[in-house]
Amino acid sequence: DLFLDGDDIRIFAAGGGAYAGSSGDDSVSGNDGADTISGNSGDDHLFGRGGDDSISGGGSDDYISGEDSDDTLSGDAGEDSLLGDNGDDSLSGGSSADTLSGGSGRDTIDGGTAFDTVDYSESAVAVNVNLINSVSFSGGDFNGNGVWTGGTADDSLFNLENIVGSNMNDRLVAGSSSASIDGRSGNDRIASFSG
Fold first, then answer.
1. pLDDT tens digit string along 38-48?
2. Which residues pair with 82 in a beta bridge?
3. Considering only Cβ atoms within 10 Å of each terminal Cβ, which end of the chain, N or C, has fewer?
4. Cα dihedral angle (14, 19, 23, 27), rounded to 10 degrees?
């Protein structure tokens, strides 16, 4: 295991390993192996690179990117930004208001407690996000009768309140009338329901 102190920038080039950040603001990049990375305290930037990585942020406001392969990302405390990127990832926001983006692949996204946001702004295709049914689809579009057709089941969604859509023609459904829904560009169908 490698433990860092102070405000550190570390890049690890080969093999898998365990890396723990410090109480400062760390930037840690794993390698092409299966890494275990913990940011600990401080506002950290943590990157898994290749391999099936396990990354946890710690107690502050962290940016965590799994990058390639099937990763497990946990924001823990703090207002975190989690990006699964490539692979079938598992994202867990933790106890504060987090922003979570699965990227490509079939991801499991759990906002945890607080008011969390699922973000599809980087999607190159339209998305159909339904927080009531806890699922999203990618691809597809509306037919002439206004019904969504096509696409494939993508992400499983839990404990999420807000939605950021893509720049395509999305269908975005939130489960609370107080939710924030950002359709971005495109001709979107947007709805929110309470109860």
1. 988 889 999 99
2. 64, 100
3. C
4. 30
Supply the pLDDT for residue 54.
Answer: 95
Parse the chain into domains and list their residue ranges: 1-84, 115-195
Is the Cβ–Cβ distance between 69 and 88 less than 8 Å?
Answer: no
Output the CA–CA distances (angstroms, integers) from residue 135 to 14, 26, 27, 72, 159, in the order listed: 37, 34, 33, 19, 12
| Cα 4–Cα 90–Cα 61 angle in degrees, nearest 5 | 45
Longest dimension (CA), the chain: 60
Q: How far apart are CA 104 and CA 91, in angstroms?
A: 13
Check: pTM over 0.90? Answer yes or no. no
How big is the chain, counted in residues?
A: 195
pLDDT, tens only, 165-192: 999 999 999 998 889 999 999 899 999 8
Which has the closest alpha carbon to 170: 195, 139, 144, 192? 139
User: Residue 11 has which token pair?
Assistant: 């890049």
**Contact of 174 with 159, CB cutoff 8 Å:** no
Q: Could you read off the pLDDT of 139-154 as tens digits, one per residue?
A: 766 665 556 666 666 8
